[in-house]
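Protocol step 4 of 6: record predicted structures for both targets in the notebook before any analysis. Target 1:
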Amino acid sequence: MHRNLPAPLLALAAALALPAVADAVLLTITNPSFENPVTNPSTFTGAQASGPAGWTVYNAGQTNNLRYFGVWNPATTPSYVAGAPDGANVGVVFLENTSNFAEAGLRQTLADTLQLSTQYTLTVEVGNFGPYAGAGWDFTGFPGYRVELLAGSTVIASDNNSLAPAEAQFLTSTVAVTIGASHANAGQPLTVRLVNLNGPAGIEVNFDRVQLAAVAVPEPSSAALLGLAALMAVTRRRWRAD
């Protein structure tokens, strides 16, 4: 007669088969909430071809197409009903580009490199600037976004416009990837890229609270796998004997 494995035996099997998982570590991102430069309420600080401290521009394009990158302090305005998710400022990718719908954004290459047997989780607050009288532009609509994690020049994980934040609201984008025991881009620098897709509706995407966590997920050891195999073999013989 076949019987289920006793609970202690199941626990032992799980302990042998599953490796211990280390605590997650937040990797260093410069200016992750766009607080530098310090900016007064209801004020934009930025440029047409350069990003805020720690960030560079991805695909700046022609400056006469009114493509602005920088930070915005939404305080005292209805651009965001709850203000900035973290701190005072939010990152800005503004693309008033009626004749050329090329995407653009902000990017940052980190000091950390892609490690094997590691899970990475990138979270970013993605915002839809709310229209209001006196804003200077019609911010109605949302042009779409993409949040990417790269190793070297290769995108290893992305969130391609899966969220649809309402006007004057932020939503949290989460991008996760687990790197196994081998990867073609192992050892290459990690890069975070935040993109405004420049779709036909809306002109600005805002970003805030950029965080990248890494946690080691080692493979099961050979000894553990052999131990598990031996345990299961003994258990099968006992089943048959019963």
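Target 2:
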Amino acid sequence: MLCQGFTVHSGDVRQSVQKAYSLPPDNVTVIPFGVYDSYKNHDRSGARQELNLNKFVILHFGMIRKYKGIPLLIKAFDMLPPEIAHNSQLVIAGEDWGDDPELEVMIKHSRYNSSILYKPEFIPDPLVPKYFAAADVIALPYLRSCGSGVVHLALAQDKLVLTSDLPVMRECLNGYEGAQFFPVGDAEMLKKKIIDTYRRWQSGDLKDFIGFGATWADVAGKYMQIIEGLVV
């Protein structure tokens, strides 16, 4: 083993790495993501106008991969009552890795196809904060995960996050009032979460959740501690 230290983003992954490589606990340090506050943008009205979004916006952002569970989100969206779905816009934006051919078929045949904005492409940096500023809720129905940069983009914009009840997601969102969890693979429960969020949005009760997550100074400090403790 050539390395003297290892870093991971969660305790769950730490256990997996220790088990896979028979590492002593002191060799693996958990350092969570910092909040991506460089993407902060609160010009909501401008972002919605630029992206042509003017209803209740559900955003799934990030690389389009099979393990992200996006077909589950399409299924949940199709289960919404017409009066909610027609006043909503489901946005799926991110680079498509091509390992989930089922997704495009589901979108094409969705009964609410006209309410789905599908952008399977690289999203340039200037547009990233605009998608989050325009969104009302971030939906992340992951089937598995070892961490999520998208969550920390959502935290930078103080957004409500609906996500699968995975140990990693519980850990990185622990203490965040804007996190809501549903069982992995449960489209029915995700639908209910979306409906509840929509009703809060409709009544003007959907608030921002401010001031959560590690700063990059915190993250840098943890890395410095590891580096200073290495034996050369």
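Step 5 preliminary note on target 2. The chain has a mean pLDDT of 89. The longest helix spans residues 187-202.
Proceed to step 6 after PI sign-off.
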